[in-house]
Amino acid sequence: MLVLSRKVGETIWIGEDVEIIITEVKGDQVKIGIQAPRSIDVIRGELRQDISDSNAESVIKNLDIFKLNK
Known about the structure:
By secondary structure, the protein is an alpha+beta fold.
């Protein structure tokens, strides 16, 4: 993991297409702006985990349905 210190207005680039801009720091909260091509999905970590958990739950339910039909 790379850990960087940045100030408001400073940026971080990921590859050629993704720019992270520090827009505000207030207490323990940091607000960032992300400029990326529309082809790149940008999603908060907790939402990604929720989606993953939901998908896993759906698979289990579908497997249970197949077991009942046998």
